[in-house]
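Hi team, as promised in this morning's meeting, here are the two structures we talked about. I've kept the exact order from the run log so nobody has to guess. The first one is mostly here for context; it's the second one we should focus on when we meet again. Sequence first, then the predicted C-alpha cells.
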Amino acid sequence: MTNTILVIMGSVRAQRHNPVLARWVAAIGQATTGVTFELVDLADWSLPMDDEPAIPATGGYVQPHTQAWSAKIADAAAFVFVTPQYNWGYPAALKNAIDHCYAEWRDKPLLIVTYGGHGGGKCAAQLVQVAEALKMRVVPTMPALTLARAMIEGSPIKAEIDFAEQRAEIEGACSTLVAMIGG
C-alpha cells in the first residue's frame, strides 16, 4: 500500500464541474499535508454493472477491469470522494465504483466533499451509511459546496475564488484524513 490518497470524481456527466472541484480539493490537500493526492476520474474507468460472476465480498474477480480497479483501491492509503448531489443522492457511477470492490475499502479513511444547489448534505449522509457498511473511517467534517443557480446551469466555476470561504474547512478535513491513515 502506498501513502497516496485517491481523490475520486463522483460524476461522469459530460457537462460537469467535478474535475474543477476535484483538482481544487486535491491541490489543497497536497499543499496542506505534503501527501500525494491523486485524481481518479470514473469516466476513465470502464466498470460495467454487475458483470462479475460472484459478489465483491468474495474477492474472486475475473474481469480485467475489476481486477485493475481492485488493485487501484487496495493500493491507496485513503480516499476523498468529490461528488455532486443528484436528487438528494449521489451519482450511480460512484455507487457502481464503490460496489465493484469490498475488502479493498475496509479500515481506510474517507473524506466526503459534496456540492450542489443545496450543498450536498443528503448525499454525504448516504455515503456515510455506505462507508459504515464497508467499515471505512469517515472524516467527521464533510465540506458541502453550495453552487449558485448560474453554476448549476453551466457557468464556469473558479473554485479558489467561488469557494474561498471553505478553503480552511477543506484544509482541516484533509489534515484529519491524513492523521487517520494507519490509525
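And here is the second protein, the one for discussion:
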Amino acid sequence: MPAKGKHRRPKSLRLTRTIAAAGTGGAALALPLLGATGAHAATPAAAQHTQKAAAVAPAAAKAAAPRTYAVKAGDYLAKIAGEQHVSGGWKKLYADNRSAIGGDPSLIHPGLKLSLGAKAAAPKAAAPKAAAPKAAAPKAAAPKTAQAKPSAAKADTAGTAAKAASTSTGSGYTLPVAGATIGTNYHVAGSMWSSGYHTGTDFVVPTGTTIKSIAAGTVVSAGWGGAYGNQVVIQHADGRYSQYAHMSSLSVSAGQSVTEGQQIGLSGATGNVTGPHLHFEIRTTPDYGSDIDPVAYLRSHGVALG
C-alpha cells in the first residue's frame, strides 16, 4: 500500500504541473490573438487614408502642371497674356519664355509653344518648320527689321503725320489702308536693314486692320515670307508689283485676280517686327531688292498722302 501511495503521489503532481503548464500556455496564446485583433481593427482606417491620398494626388498633380500655348498667326505677347489671363502681363510671359523667344519679344512665330504662368523648362532647339519655309523667303537677304519707331517717325519730313481722308481716288488706285499714319518712310538709312536702308513705307495700324490692294492686278504670291512674315505680292497692269507684309491673316491666294480696294488680308505683327504695322513696297520685279519709292508711286497715280 505505501508503495502504491508513493506511486500515485507523483502522478498527482504531474497532473498539477500539466494543468499549470496548460494555463500558462493559454495565457501566452491569448496575447497574439489580442494583437491580431488590434491590427485587424486598424486596417479599415489605414485603407481609408490611403484611398484619400490616392484621390488627392491626381488633382494636385493636375493643378501643379504648367499650362502651355501654341502661337497662332496674328498673335503677339500682349494679346496672348490678356486672352490667357497671365498674371504679370506680357512682360511676365516674355520673361518666362525668353529662352525660347530670344532677345526680341515681338519675334514670335506660329507653332512656337509658350509656358503660361511658369518659366519654360528648356529653350527650344529650333524654330518651328511652319514658321520659315525656305521656298517662300526673298532671294536676297531679308531686312533685319521693319519697324515703326517713334524716333524714325520724328525724322521723317515727308509725311510723318499724313492721314488718308479717302481711299478712293477715281484713278484706279487707292491707299493700302484707310486713315493710317506713316511711320518709317522709304529709304531711311539704318544698320538694322540688310540693304542699309528701309525698302518700303510703314503704315502704323493696329492688328486686324483691313489691308487693300492698291489697284487691280494678279496675286503673284501669298504666304510666309521669312522676315516679312505673312505677305502678299500683286502684279499690276503697268508691270509694277506691290508688296504687303507682316499681316496677321491673308484673304487671297497666288494666281487670284483682285480689284482696286479689294481686301487681301488683315494687318498684324508677323515676321521680324517690333510691333503691328503694314510694311508696303512697290517693286519693279516680284523679288526683294527691286524696290522704288512707294509714296511717289502712289502720288503719281493720284493717291494723296498729305
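Starting points for discussion:
The longest helix spans residues 2-64.
Residues 18-42, 123-167 have pLDDT under 50 and may be disordered.
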